[in-house]
Design goal:
Strand content of chain A: 5-15%
CATH architecture of the largest domain in chain A: Orthogonal Bundle
Oligomer: homodimer
Number of helices of chain A: 22
CATH class of the largest domain in chain A: Mainly Alpha
Helix content of chain A: 55-70%
CATH superfamily of the largest domain in chain A: SLC41 divalent cation transporters, integral membrane domain
Order of helices and strands of chain A: HHHHHHHHHHEHEEHHEHEEHHHHHHHH
Strand order of the largest sheet of chain A: 1-2-3
Radius of gyration of chain A: 30 Å
Chain lengths: 450, 450
């Protein structure tokens, strides 16, 4: 079904006040990540009717499923009063993302209309950068006193469960909010009713600092197999929790950044279809120019060997093939090593093992490619001399490319540079110039030039 | 701490029978994914002592944290009897992965020594390919009859919780194992004790077919925000569950495959450091040769334009720069589009929007690069004529590269080919040959050759 059919459909459902069908439609769109497409073309009148039909809670949940920027845009079409009510009904972490998408004046207008307590909660969340644990966490956790009994804790849970984002963990805090233990719902249900919470709680709680990178939080959840991880400030006070359903978002976001870097451009912060061309240009032109400058010296190399080129034009025929193969071999290694580092399979101290492995691999690949390029030279009828030159060159270039491709990402990581900047284009560019030097040096010796 | 220090340490702890310290050391190594490194150099005697010290349960859990191949190797160092006991104590899905790493004869030897019921369970799991829902699932779920009351269900839960991998969901099945509903622990705890299970269960259960791709299962868990998803056979009978802690494994594995394809090689199925060089060669040589063949015709193009090359050698100076820039611009687009498809941001029907966006982007990028390459030509002193040729060429090549880079992944996906095969090397290779044709055509017209 195309987007415009969707819109007809949603407009019809709004006009006919079909609440249940609307919720079904919106929920299935949410699972496909296409809610924004569905609602962006609604008239302001329809948006108002939709908000009325769904009520604050469901409308708020709908906004939570959208990209924060799109949700913010939708929200501005409601009266400020109504928008504030919706924000109050939303999960605080989602609400903070939406408010964070406004400029400061607009954000303050909405926060001013909200209940003071809830506005303060949002201001607190907004004070952390969005890609940190603080920016990701929700304050909607359940915390109880260590002096309750297990059965009282279950009662407290029943009362608090409405507001909380997870009830699978109950945190135990002292009177000053210091996190002193954790209970799992599983543990609570399985332990005798009269036991004091203090005796069943786990004291050695795994936490994440509020200023940690969001990736650290996701990694902690995964490594320890948790459903939620508590976020604490520098004095050990419980500030919020990050739940397991944030993990796939975080992994997706961080992996997308890695992949775009490997493709040789700066990561987009918004969905591709929303990015304007000038924005795409800004993300790409930097690397394109850097790679251009890095490659420009190939011209100097070729100008230096002008006499050789004029003497043996056939050498030119193989230039793209030789440097291209070097770039390809290098890019295979770079992507493998960058990925192996990202998932923790290799670290810097493995460097000698890696180089040795790649050297052996490079020799085998290089010999195979040498046979292939020698055969190609016979087909082009350029003579056995040139065939030997290109065969030796491709062997040397492949070995050189895999070695550089293996070492560079490891060294960059050691220098605290994101190894994903050693993109396929980067290694290809690097191999282009050095590959030509190798080529003409071998040609000079074998053909007895210079 | 280096690996060899670790081994000294673990050997010492085994010799001194320090069970708790051993478990601490092994658990922290497990979180870093380095258990295999830690135990691979132990003597057979030490492995025996370690198994005795830890007991079946903890030793089995240790194996579950390792790569299946490594775990299998460790297991062969125990007596078959003892190994079978450990396998029985393990989570069935982990045990199946380990047994799956043996060859058939070895696997049968272990299965023969195990309790018949547990062996049958493993044989069943082993019958599904490892990257399907069936291959990922565990049969360790809790299923109850719809005729129990909520409080009886909680009692059943207490009894069954030991064996189950999650107690957050309780599945309701009829006498023939058909899945008819699901209860969340949350729902059970929050509902009155006397309510029949039938009345509190959710009947509309989200399931995954046993032969679905593991990626579908992970996506379902994420989209619906579930902690576990039930896996059913074609007659709707409950076969197993996949829990949320499998999701990050699955995403990691599938993303790694995508990234390696984008880098121009076939995905590795094992950790990089365990892959032997000949294995790396096998994964890479295919694409390297395909790209070689695709690029070989650049030689034909250049041979065809031999006269032009001899007349204006300066054209050669810019060849690597022009085709390199085209490859870089194309690879930026390809990685962005492939990733946007993988996360569901774009689909085939967006193709016109995408091409229009990339055309505008390409024109802006191309103009910028044309200015840069014209400046470079002045520096090399090759004359304004050649400067105009290379300027026009880079503009045309960049526009061409971004357009092809945008269309190809979308079309391939439509043809059911994994779009990640349109790697950065692939697009660079494609642009090399066509770029040279563009170059010499423009040169022919502007310089009045041919």
């Amino acid at each position: 079904m195309s987007t415009s059919e969707h819109v007809d459909n949603i407009s019809t459902l709004i006009r006919e006040s079909q609440r249940d069908a609307l919720i079904d439609l919106l929920m299935s769109a949410a699972r496909e990540g296409r809610v924004s497409d569905l609602v962006q073309d609604l008239t302001t009148r329809e948006v108002h009717e939709l908000a009325d039909l769904l009520g604050e809670d469901d409308f708020g949940e709908l906004l939570g499923e959208m990209e924060p920027g799109d949700a913010a845009q939708l929200l501005t079409r409601l009266a400020v009063r109504d928008a504030a009510d919706v924000l109050e009904a939303m999960d605080p972490d989602d609400a903070a993302d939406v408010v964070g998408a406004f400029d400061e004046d607009q954000a303050n207008r909405f926060l001013f209309e909200m209940e003071p307590v809830e506005a303060a909660e949002l201001r607190q969340l907004l004070s952390y950068p969005p890609d940190t644990a603080g920016g990701r966490m929700t304050p909607a956790f359940i915390a109880i006193s260590p002096d309750l009994r297990a059965d009282q804790a279950v009662v407290a849970l029943r009362q608090l469960s409405e507001e909380a984002e997870t009830i699978y963990y109950v945190y135990v805090t002292d009177s000053e909010d210091h996190l002193i233990g954790v209970l799992s719902l599983r543990g609570l249900v399985l332990s005798p009713p009269e036991t004091p919470v203090r005796n069943v709680m786990v004291e050695d709680v795994v936490t994440v600092p509020v200023d940690a990178d969001q990736e650290v939080a996701a990694q902690t959840l995964t490594d320890y197999g948790l459903l939620a991880v508590p976020v604490v400030d520098d004095r050990g006070r419980l500030q919020g929790i990050i739940t397991s359903d944030d993990v796939s978002d975080i992994i997706e976001q961080e992996t997308t950044e890695d992949i775009e870097r490997l493709g040789g451009s700066a990561p987009l912060e918004e969905p591709y279809l929303r990015a304007r061309p000038i924005h795409l240009v800004k993300k790409r032109i930097g690397w394109l120019l850097i790679l251009f400058l890095a490659q420009a010296y190939t011209g100097t190399v070729l100008a230096f060997y002008e006499d050789t080129l004029e003497a043996v034009t056939a050498l030119v025929f193989f230039m793209p093939l030789l440097i291209g193969t070097g770039g390809n071999a290098g890019s295979q290694v770079v992507t493998t090593i960058v990925r192996a580092m990202a998932v923790g399979d290799v670290v810097f101290r493995d460097i000698l093992k890696i180089v040795w492995k790649e050297l052996q691999t490079g020799i085998m690949l290089g010999v195979a490619m040498a046979v292939a390029v020698f055969a190609r030279s016979l087909m082009l009828g350029v003579g056995v001399d040139v065939g030997i030159v290109v065969g030796l060159t491709i062997l040397a270039i492949v070995i050189w490319a895999v070695t550089v491709g293996a070492i560079l990402p490891l060294v960059l990581r050691q220098l605290k540079v994101d190894p994903a900047v050693v993109s396929a284009p980067f290694i290809a560019t690097l191999v282009d110039g050095t590959g030509l030097l190798i080529y003409f040096s071998i040609a000079g010796v074998v053909l007895g030039l210079n």
